[in-house]
Amino acid sequence: MSQHRRRVPAKKVKRRRAVVVTAFAATVALGLGVGVWASTGEDSAARPSGGRAAVSADSPSATPSGTRPSPSRSYALSTAPSTVPAVRTHAAARGPGWRPAHAGRVVVSDAELAADGKLIAGELGMTYAGQKNDDRAGDLRLALGGSDGADPESYTMTVRGGRVNISAPAAPGVFYGTRTLKQEVHGGGTAPEGVVRDGPAKPVRGFMLDIARKYFTASWIEDRVRELGDLKYNELGLHFSDDQGFRIQSDTHPEIVSKEHLSKAQVRKIIKLAESRHITVVPEIDSPGHLGAVIAAHPDLQLRNTRGVATRGAVDISKPAAAQIVDDLLNEFAGLFPGKQWNLGGDEYQALTVPDPAASFPQLAAAARKEYGSGGTVSDLATGWLNDRADTVRAHDRTMRAWNDGFLKGTSVQPAKDLQVAYWTGKELGARQPVEYLSTGRDLINYNDEFLYYVLGQPNTFVYPTGQRIYEQWTPRVVRGTTAVPAKYDDQILGGTFAVWCDLANSQTQDQVAAGIRMPLAATSQKLWDSRRPTRSWPQFKALAGRLG
């Protein structure tokens, strides 16, 4: 990936984004003090009197239509929430709305939601009361429920009668409802009467951080986890092994670990915090390239050509010891990272960039012929390496992805069928369009380096991405460059990931990185949650994100 990496989702999820459309009309306010919701599971009870046609809650304005609600001497029809990402639908109603009170309770209907209940109670200054069956004025109730097969990340929030109800098919959806509520009452705002029905367009919404080239403190990473949770991201990728460093404590090979690194205790704390935000931490140990930190401690494993010249970052994949040390690390860190996703890397193996790999590296050509017959090539051997590493990780019941330039063209050996494509570049060997990967039936995660790559120092023509460009021009179907793939492949595009690569590590401090990615993360969140063209202008969205902090 041009001297840097880019970033696995779980099994392909069939997204059911059907939104029950109840009647209403609303004017969407751009300020903060507006909207929240919850669900009783009874659509009729959630409808405002008189009934209204549902509209997108992202719309800055909506014209009332249909039968008007019963007149109210006290309350105007509520306006839709103003959140990042925007909620998908809001059915307006008349009423005073809801504000958290210090004496108010957060109650749950299921013990599984205790952690989510305690978190939002602390954030809103309320009392967590645990499982309760009674209802009191001012309550916030969290509950599990919904139709069979519903998206586990969807939720319904209803504000009615001085109470808030959030329900979802699974805990992640409940958590996302609490994020919407938290934003709505941010700074003393009021959650308006009405019902929100919400859920993401894509099941993979990720942020990837290159901690191999640049050391980031554990507290900085934890701050990003909190930020990601509030923006409804569900993945944090950690690229922790590369030529410049190996940044997590290793017990099997302590000799490869950089002086500045995270301890396993620190990583466990990050993982625990991420789990509390329903975020999966996705590890990456890239191979057979980008292994310079390993080679520094094991120079005998470095790939050399016929003249004895070393190939930067590449191990000699004809040597069984190279496979053994990588498998040792994969097995060790599978025990540290409990999530189901894993990035195998597989990109930029420099042996394949020379005009004649077999002539430059005859030991690789000989190993390929031995393994795959007289027609075996160095590309076949590299693909076989990727498949062998997939076997190692698959034994830990993981879903795996690899960078698109790790899927080599014209090989007799094919990459494992269960590998997902982490598509970042159109500059790989063979320069294949995304459709060439999608047409084989593979799932794909979008890391488009044109929009989603924040590369420190802006080397190799990279330019820091802006939130505005992402917001106005990118969608998950824009996988390479600025052109979208055909809509028929939409279900195979599981989502996207915004990536920070630290090629020129000292170009920015970690605080400058945090400031630089804030708006791009907000914009990416919006487009992964709702891929449709936003109706808020960029200035409106930017102002809203700024107020929400």
From TrEMBL:
Q: Which domain of life is it from?
A: Bacteria
**Active-site residues, Swiss-Prot/TrEMBL:** 348 (proton donor)
Pfam families per UniProt: Glyco_hydro_20 (PF00728), Glyco_hydro_20b (PF02838)
UniProt keywords, alphabetically: Glycosidase, Hydrolase
GO: which molecular function terms? beta-N-acetylhexosaminidase activity
Domain named Glycoside hydrolase family 20 catalytic is located at 205-511
Gene3D superfamilies recorded: Chitobiase/beta-hexosaminidase domain 2-like (3.30.379.10), Glycosidases (3.20.20.80)
Instruction: Give yes or no: UniProt keyword DNA-binding.
Output: no
Q: Enumerate the PANTHER family for this protein.
A: BETA-N-ACETYLHEXOSAMINIDASE, PUTATIVE (AFU_ORTHOLOGUE AFUA_2G00640)-RELATED
Family named by the database record: Belongs to the glycosyl hydrolase 20 family.
Q: What is this protein called?
A: Beta-N-acetylglucosaminidase
**Which species expresses this protein natively?**
Streptomyces griseoviridis
Its lineage opens with: Bacteria, Bacillati, Actinomycetota, Actinomycetes, Kitasatosporales
